Amino acid sequence: MASVGTLSLFYPVFLPASVAALVYAGHRASYVNWRIWLYNFLTGPGRTSRILLLFFLVLNWKSLPLAWTVRVFHAFLYHVLRRPKVLPPRALFHFSISSSRTSLLETDYNMHKSNSTYFADLDVSRSHLVTHLLGPAMPAVGDNARNKLVLDKDGNLVKGGFGIGLGAVFCSFRREIAPFERYEMWSRILSWDRKWLYIVTHFVAKGKVRPTGWDDRRMGPTRMRAVDGGDWTKHVFATAITKYVFKLGRFTVHPAIVIEANGLLPARPGGWRSGDDGTGTPEELGELGGSAEDSEWDWRHVEQERRKGLEYANHFTALDGTNALFDGGEDGAIGSFPLG
């Protein structure tokens, strides 16, 4: 399991350090005569090389050193500052949309976006989604000594710093993304079980699809609901599924605890940590018609969406068993090659 950050350090360490760095940078910049500096940059000796280099850097900024860190931390800071105080319950399965463009340094010898670069974009898109939906709950769960949200099986209070672990990523490629082409990443919660939170992300052609509404009314234009549902898959470049695990120290936190701490789970008989055992049979869930806006967003609606997504997530999780296929080259190997 690859750790993607201990969020218990973000608020007390990284956030103040980032603010301090920005304040210091702004302070130093105030001593620069930018008019003279810009004149010298555009007219001084070697100006052609500088301008071409600047143009190259601007076009490829997302592939530069530390750019990944800036993009991910921007997602954290953006939602700390702009997130609405209260989200509607139906937001739990809504998409988070972020935009990007294929840079020249992301383009492979086939002249399209390299498959390996999708995973850096996924980090950014998931950071937007998880921070927006669950951001306020993370410090609450992290301060477990005060809030007492996480107990072990014996009822003891769990100690340790809060973190998120990346368990696995699967990506299915449908169509190529051309150099400098703009695209969007549509990420939402797919499902969860006792251990994993599953997230699905679609890479979509920029400007081809708009949602029928926004949870935040400041976001911009929407579209009318399609009568026939619409064939939106024709605009999809690729689809990825990710599984996250929440941790307090080395203790695995049930995803429902984090989601519930953020007020996104309605009351459910037996609680949300009962999983699939004994609560919410298909008969109890029933058939829910209409949209989330037209029907009551109760625990049955949430559970139905969770189980629908879990049908796909279970197939994804089954691939974990392929680790057992590694036999250490029991029957030999082709060879060992440089620059791997």
TrEMBL record:
Residues passing through the membrane, by range: 6-25
Taxonomy, superkingdom: Eukaryota
Protein name: Capsule polysaccharide biosynthesis protein
Organism annotation: Lasiosphaeria miniovina
Family indicated by similarity: Belongs to the lcsJ thioesterase family.
Record InterPro entries: HotDog_dom_sf, THEM6_lcsJ_thioesterase
Region annotation (Disordered) ranges: 269-295
Record keywords: Membrane, Transmembrane, Transmembrane helix
Pfam families linked to this entry: 4HBT_2
